Amino acid sequence: MRIAKMVGRALGVEHTVVDRVRKDELGRGFVVEVRPYSKHQNRCPTCLVPCPKYDTGSGRRRWRGHDFGLAKVMLEANAGRVQCAEHGVLVAHTPWARPGSRFTRAFENQAAWFATKTDKTTVSTVLSIAWRTVGDIVTRVCDEQRALRDPLDGVTRIGIDEVSYRKGHRYLTVVIDHDTGKLIWAAPGRSSATLNKFFRALGKERRQAIQLVSADAANWIAKSVAKNCRNAKLCIDPFHVVAWATKALDKVRRTLWNKLRRQGEGERANAMKGSRWALMKNPEDLSRTQRQTLKTLEQDNHPLYVAYLLKEQLRAVFAEKGWQAAFTLQQWIGMARASRLAPFKAVANSIENNLEGIQHALMTGLSNGITESSNNGLRLLTRIAYGFHSPEPLIALAMLKRGGLCPKLPRLTHG
Fold it and tell me: If you count Cβ atoms within 10 Å of the first and of the last residue's Cβ in the chain, which end, N or C, has fewer?
């Protein structure tokens, strides 16, 4: 095998002729002079259609490649421009690099793989590139991978949620495929207008294929789903409904605590203040001390204990599922209203306002659990992605890691 061909294989470049290798101007690295195969020359970088030459552009250009040991390697080639009938005047296609990039395709694939596996300091140090540059790289890699395998194909059951990615109430709207557990779409914002972008990306035929949508009871989600997916059933996530009851329980506790303080019953008030975790925990997770606290509340503070039972009864409803659970939920609404506890009356009203979606969740067993799990991973990524100048690189990184679009680590193949 010729040395030039071995260098090309080591750099992971395809459809490329290596003319020669020389030291760079400082004598610390190498410059590899390359050119595309003749059949790959003078092509549009967007559609790859052969095009007439336009001019020589900026002349010679360099692209960063994989290092040779401790020495940096730059590929150098002419960067002439072509005139595409559809896309206009552009720098001609280079088989070794993505359009607009100053790095080889193999180098960018390696950087994207590292970005999904380790922290930003390690990526920047090992590859000797700025973290913001990594953001540009993962965006290009993600865009190409999306074009090769559309993550929106074949989806029928989706989960929709929001996740905070930065202080100042900055959110991403995220969509998960329930059948694969993968992230399939994300965009900055949390509104019907944001979610409508997802449904437009799906297109009419794929929108009609959506059967089930899990979400919380946010109006903006319900509005967008009703507008775009009329055939789909919206399933209100049971976890969020139980969370309503948990918040109501805490409101009852705080109200009674303040009442005892005003009445000068400081000892009883302090005992109630320390009961918060015993009330919030699931019964199976209670410690011996917390179980004793609940027994004391049953005897000493009946309204608070009733509120605790209502919270646990609602949790039991969603653990049961099916028609029996739907019937029991109606009974729970009656008990909540008869309890004379204002926070639980408000929960009963919220459940009735979202009853159809909650019943769909009970009948199908669909919840946002898988979406919440994915969001936990996204929250970790937001820490890694701190320093990106916009949410787009974060979304690209999330699609590579959580959406299964990450390319394989480049390797030298035999043969």
Answer: C
